[in-house]
Amino acid sequence: MNYIKRFRVEPGSKVNLGKVDAGFHDQHESHEHALPETETYAQKLHDLQYLMYAEGKRSLLICLQGRDAAGKDGTINHVLGAMNPQGCTVTGFKVPSKEEAAHDFLWRYHRHTPDKGQVAIFNRSHYEDVLVVRVHDMVPKQVWSARYAQINDFEKILADNGTHILKFYLHIDPEEQLARFKQRIDDPARHWKISDGDYAERPFWDAYTEAFEDALGKTSTEYAPWFIIPSNHKWFRNLAISRIVAETLESLNMKFPEPTVDIDEIKQKYHAIEQEERIGQESTERAGPEANPSLTFWPPDSAENPYIPALSEDRPKPDQSLSGRRLRVVP
Ligand code: AMP
Ligand code: MG
């Protein structure tokens, strides 16, 4: 199955989340069954991110959206775990600060878009400004309804400047959300994640559904597509997202840059001598410490070192055998 085609929201389409099975898990019956494939894509992600970093020409922006407990943190842990942290940034967006609220709504997001060669992950994103903001009437309708086009323009600017954008909506159903909230209650290590606010949003489930459907349909574009990821099964969510990100990166046909130096010349200039030295060293070592006074046996024997007990009669004398002792350079 082609996951990019299967889960991508067609630009201009009308989304109906009620028709999407949040429990879908393709042909895999369990986490264990999916593991070999998941690991293959984790390795691919690792290698492709390294290539993107080396190439330094373009970047990747991953936006994660979903309801509370949909698995945004878990996805980041998984996807990022496969990558080198040097080439990644993660930014979480919460209720805007006073300074952020004093600017246009995109200001705080633009500052965290990726440098060339880098992957940036947004944990929530500029879509909050057409989701929570819309559901709770934080701005008038005419303000949030203009934002879909503004978001498309913003993403077009990023795309035209070398940023590839992938947006994932983590789709869970209300029963799964409640079960996950309950798991948090049962696990003291996750109590810190529980907030009244999460429960308070549940009565707005349908209003959020409408807001998500509108956002997904109006802002899925060729240059910044949305993917609806069935996320009731965390392991399937991780597999699907890793696979879509890896396959997208693969399709970019990135190349390692040409070396900026003449490799043969460098080899000749700096490594030829090293090579000679190594050959010389090896023949000196074979000749033993007499040929080179800076070499000694290790561990030392009792005759040389009064602090260790003498060797018993039945063991070879120090000068009779070299076995079990190595030559080392005395500093
Ligand atoms: P959490 O991700 O659970 O730490 O919660 C962050 C909270 O910040 C969520 O309730 C979001 O809806 C809220 N939030 C994020 N962005 C905005 C925004 N632009 N305006 C208002 N609330 C926001
Ligand atoms: Mg929350």
Describe this entry's structure for a reader.
- The protein has 331 residues and is α/β, with parallel strands linked by helices.
- The protein has 2 domains: 3-250, P-loop containing nucleotide triphosphate hydrolases (Rossmann fold, 3-Layer(aba) Sandwich), CATH 3.40.50; 263-329, no CATH class.
- Helix content is 45%, strand content 12%.
- The protein has helices at residues 3-7, 31-55, 72-81, 98-101, 107-110, 132-135, 141-160, 174-186, 196-201, 205-219, 234-250, 263-287, and strands at residues 59-66, 88-92, 119-123, 163-171, 226-230, 295-298, 326-329.
- It has a 5-stranded parallel sheet, with helices on both faces.
- Helix 2 (31-55) packs parallel to helix 11 (234-250) and helix 3 (72-81) crosses helix 11.
- It is elongated, with a radius of gyration of 30 Å.
- It starts with a helix and ends with a strand.
- Residues 308-331 have low confidence and may be disordered.
- Magnesium ion (MG) is lined by residues 68, 195, 198.
Brief overview:
The protein has 331 residues and is α/β, with parallel strands linked by helices.
